[in-house]
Amino acid sequence: MPEDTLADYPFPLTRLSGDHIESDLLRIRSVGASLGTIPVIIGDRESAERLIELWDEPFDHDAELARSSELSPEQWFADRRQEEDEYLLDASQDEIHPDGTAPMTHLTIGSDHRGRPKSEVFIATIPTADSSAVPIFLRFGDWNACPSPHVHTAMARYWRDRFGAEIATLSSDVIEFTVARPPADDTQALELAWQQYLYCSDIVDQGVGSVATLAKALRHSTRWYFWWD
Fold it and tell me: Looking at the record, which segments are called Disordered (predicted)?
């Protein structure tokens, strides 16, 4: 019998089918809230195994958590925008691509690239009542263009307070949120779209095509999607 590579995973795992993974997560989340834990979808077996590879590197959980509290998201966005200012002023960011304006209302993690449910998806139970801390518990980030764990946590906390956004998925290269309070108007949606683009440019550059298009989608989206390659 082949070795179970997830047998010693650092957090309890629940294995489910991708068919109803979103409703399963929301059900488990309601139970976890009373226990001071957060369930989060970590993807299929390959994704879970790739996440655990991050544990081979030195990591100071408490220091990273402190850094997340010290970071100002507004300043972080301002610094990133200044670094990329020449490109960000490109008029193409104002174009609207109709195909990308549909609101996001479902998580994507339970299906493959053809939209077929995956046979096996894992939910990890994280020992915290704060969903924004999940990237630090899972040591997610600090590779290629993907921000460090403390940045992910600072952004998640900021958006939780403003929009009721809670991390639902954290796989090897994807973060997805459920969103209780989408932007109240087009101005707020555009501000949020620029923030999300500065945080994860691929959702525009390899996704909807412009910040203005993303803003249209975010106006009524109850789910957010981020991906780094």
Answer: 95-114
